[in-house]
Amino acid sequence: MSKMLSKIQWMKLLVPIVSVVLGLLCGAIIMVAAGYNPLLAYGSIVQSIFLQPYYTGETIRAMIPLVLSGLAVAFAFRTGLFNIGVEGQLLVGWFASVAAAIVFEGLPKVILLPLCIIAGGAAGGIWGFLPGFLKARFKVHEVISTIMMNYIALYTTSYLIKNFLYTEGERTPTIPSAASLASPTLANLTQGSRLHWGFIVAILAAVAMWFILWKTTRGYELRAVGFSPDASKYAGMNVSRNIILSMTISGIFAGLSGAMEGLGTYQYMMINSTFTGIGFNGIAVALLGLNTPVGVILAGALFAGLQTGGLTMQSVAGVPVELIQIVIALIIFFVGSSYVIKWALLRFSMRGHKN
Amino acid sequence: MSILEVLAIIVPSTLLTAAPLIFTALGGVFSERSGVVNIGLEGLMSVGAFTAAIATLFLEHAGFGNASPWIAILIAAVAGAIFSLIHAVVSITFRADQTVSGVALNFLAAGLTIFLVKLIYNGNGQTPYIAHNINKISVPVLSNIPIIGPIFFQQVTYTSYLAIFVSFVVWYIIFKTSFGLRLRSVGEHPAAADTLGINVTRMRYIGVMLSGFFGGIGGAVYLVTITANYNVSTIAGQGFLALAAMVFGKWHPIGAMGASLFFGFAQALSITSQQIPYIDRLPSVVMMVAPYVLTLIVLTGFVGRAEPPKADGIPYIKGQR
């Protein structure tokens, strides 16, 4: 029996790995069908992100918001909630952090930088709180409400930038250096990439997620609600409050993700006519990372690497960078179909036993 | 500016923007009534718009002239239905989380269509413009009726009337035929439907593929009447707007049509608001976010509760309670 259980544990870990392999394999098949050289394409990705410091730096830079978005999705998943609203929470977090930096210009860095990061997290938290509240109080499904919140965020932030913080180039002014996470040291180390100190925030957030969910009573309740809302309610837990709390914390992670883009990568916010895609990628990251902090970091590294390396792939092998998006989509399909993958693996391993 | 003149600007513009939403939202109704959540409407519209662009360009070249966009819409519908098979297989047969599958469908559509555009047009990220759009026309005779004519029958496209007509057909199919009853039953209580001999899996496949069919039409109509070429930002959020319209319309075909018209109205207002007295003082963002805020309000139940089908989003596993 215990052997069987350990086998299932193993299988859990195997699913993401098999999914990634299958996704890359399908990507290669598409490339061959379209007349490209998959070995050259994948080779150029690996070569650039591991051997060229600039691309290594950009990969880690791209990881920061991806990991935070992934944590946001994963955290809500643990309470049985599907937060598709990371994209919107990210946008309001981005806007709030940049706005705070510009409004409070002149404050010393020790105060201003934390203030801006908190502003980003808080804005995202509010944007996550609302769907949580609607779900807990009115039973509004969070998938629909967070999609609506995404668009409200997209249009509202654009409007606010256009009317209150506008500067030439369809964007806000650049934030004061006292609010910036950018680092000349890190940039020099990576031949001028946009790598910034935000990676510390991402790591701290991953630790925070682990600590909250697995080391506190509240986290135990959150996970219990995720396993079974009815049983949790019967055990005397306040399901509504846990739903609201989970969505709020998830929103905070997402807001931080946006703050990292505002304070680190770009140092401003542009008027977005469409979504950044980071929030949606966060869903893929969380799924692939099995909703665990370590898994999210690993999955974030993989997707960040693929996206950064995708640019080299386009220039070296001539493959349109959209191939990476196709591969990521296929990986989500495969991870989502884990039931079939597990079944196939089980059949496979059983056959091995008989022989 | 008189009220009539204002209406003569807004109503045709509303009908124009609503048509793609109506088709796509009707697709959503089919899928969700059969018990499969379809977040992938956006992706289905993208596939439809992409196919319509390529097909129209090809047909024009082959000499089909004004018939090209209409044939292209049909081809796009088939393409949408085929593409939606991925969602059906993954979420029905493989029992994946339907929301996850829908998200992946959107990803795949966005990536694949642009990948193919670049492949076909040597690295160029957008298709050329089609020459034969479905143009705005004035309906003969009817447009000469005083008052009603200029508002409802001038500067419109036939696709808008078609969309409204089709939503009544869909209503009839879902609520007045045995096929519709079966479709709804597998979305409400699949186990009960199964005991009565209804093939749950097959009905759900049909539901999803119809959503692909209509989503494809929606995307195609958007392309041949509004944008005329396909690029990354062609279907920017139209599919999610259609999803909102379906929810706002309480999973009902006529409701979905009404909601689409209303959302089209909000879009039309946000575009034409500068020309209209009083409304030009309102910040444009109010009109932009109105559809989404109103959908949220409807969901909270202040204006009559919106309930999804009972088994919406739950994979059916035979023999499981």
TrEMBL record, chain A:
<keyword id="KW-1133">Transmembrane helix</keyword>
<feature type="transmembrane region" description="Helical">
    <location>
        <begin position="59"/>
        <end position="77"/>
    </location>
</feature>
<dbReference type="Pfam" id="PF02653">
    <property type="entry name" value="BPD_transp_2"/>
</dbReference>
<keyword id="KW-0812">Transmembrane</keyword>
<keyword id="KW-1003">Cell membrane</keyword>
<feature type="transmembrane region" description="Helical">
    <location>
        <begin position="195"/>
        <end position="214"/>
    </location>
</feature>
<feature type="transmembrane region" description="Helical">
    <location>
        <begin position="243"/>
        <end position="260"/>
    </location>
</feature>
<protein>
    <submittedName>
        <fullName>ABC transporter permease</fullName>
    </submittedName>
</protein>
<dbReference type="GO" id="GO:0005886">
    <property type="term" value="C:plasma membrane"/>
</dbReference>
<dbReference type="GO" id="GO:0022857">
    <property type="term" value="F:transmembrane transporter activity"/>
</dbReference>
<feature type="transmembrane region" description="Helical">
    <location>
        <begin position="323"/>
        <end position="345"/>
    </location>
</feature>
<feature type="transmembrane region" description="Helical">
    <location>
        <begin position="296"/>
        <end position="317"/>
    </location>
</feature>
<feature type="transmembrane region" description="Helical">
    <location>
        <begin position="266"/>
        <end position="289"/>
    </location>
</feature>
<feature type="transmembrane region" description="Helical">
    <location>
        <begin position="110"/>
        <end position="130"/>
    </location>
</feature>
<feature type="transmembrane region" description="Helical">
    <location>
        <begin position="142"/>
        <end position="161"/>
    </location>
</feature>
<feature type="transmembrane region" description="Helical">
    <location>
        <begin position="84"/>
        <end position="104"/>
    </location>
</feature>
<dbReference type="InterPro" id="IPR001851">
    <property type="entry name" value="ABC_transp_permease"/>
</dbReference>
<keyword id="KW-0472">Membrane</keyword>
UniProtKB/TrEMBL annotation, chain B:
<keyword id="KW-1003">Cell membrane</keyword>
<dbReference type="GO" id="GO:0005886">
    <property type="term" value="C:plasma membrane"/>
</dbReference>
<feature type="transmembrane region" description="Helical">
    <location>
        <begin position="285"/>
        <end position="304"/>
    </location>
</feature>
<protein>
    <submittedName>
        <fullName>ABC transporter permease protein YufQ</fullName>
    </submittedName>
</protein>
<keyword id="KW-1133">Transmembrane helix</keyword>
<keyword id="KW-0472">Membrane</keyword>
<dbReference type="InterPro" id="IPR001851">
    <property type="entry name" value="ABC_transp_permease"/>
</dbReference>
<feature type="transmembrane region" description="Helical">
    <location>
        <begin position="205"/>
        <end position="224"/>
    </location>
</feature>
<feature type="transmembrane region" description="Helical">
    <location>
        <begin position="71"/>
        <end position="94"/>
    </location>
</feature>
<feature type="transmembrane region" description="Helical">
    <location>
        <begin position="7"/>
        <end position="30"/>
    </location>
</feature>
<feature type="transmembrane region" description="Helical">
    <location>
        <begin position="100"/>
        <end position="121"/>
    </location>
</feature>
<keyword id="KW-0812">Transmembrane</keyword>
<feature type="transmembrane region" description="Helical">
    <location>
        <begin position="36"/>
        <end position="59"/>
    </location>
</feature>
<feature type="transmembrane region" description="Helical">
    <location>
        <begin position="158"/>
        <end position="175"/>
    </location>
</feature>
<dbReference type="Pfam" id="PF02653">
    <property type="entry name" value="BPD_transp_2"/>
</dbReference>
<dbReference type="GO" id="GO:0022857">
    <property type="term" value="F:transmembrane transporter activity"/>
</dbReference>
